[in-house]
Amino acid sequence: NKPSQSAPVHVDVATRVTITASDTTIRKGGTVTFFGVVAPNHAGQPVLLQRQVNGVWTTVSTTSLDADSSYVLRYTLGAKEKKSSGAFRVVKPADADHVTGTSASVTITVG
User: Fold this and answer.
1) Residues in a beta bridge with 75
2) HSE on the CB side for 106, CA within 13 Å?
3) Cβ distance 108 to 21 under 8 Å?
4) What is the pTM for the complete model shown?
5) Dist CA 98 CA 93 (whole Å)
6) What's the mean pLDDT when you consider all of the chain?
7) What b/e string do you get for 22-56 counting C-beta neighbours within 10 Å, with b at 16 or more?
8) For residue 82, what pLDDT band results from cuts at 50, 70 and 90?
9) Cβ atoms of residues 77 and 111 within 8 Å
């Protein structure tokens, strides 16, 4: 008997994206700062801050990762924001060696 061989299996690997918010309750017109890290290091590549509106994720800010693969993104809540909450996340788009990475979502309450 010959040993059997399996065909190679392609596995997509996403980057790991962390997210932390400076505060989770913000006044109308206030600014929340999101920060985190993408691993493995993808210095210089873009990350997107997205907000969920009516069930759809929309990009509201972008930045590039620094030398440590860290980011800081700020979002200012408009003066006309309703007193409610909104979900935010950070997305690292796919590149040559990883598929899209997405952080957990963070809920920000307008109070």
Assistant:
1) 32
2) 24
3) yes
4) 0.87
5) 9
6) 90
7) eeeebeeebebebebbbeeebeebebbbbbeeeee
8) low
9) no
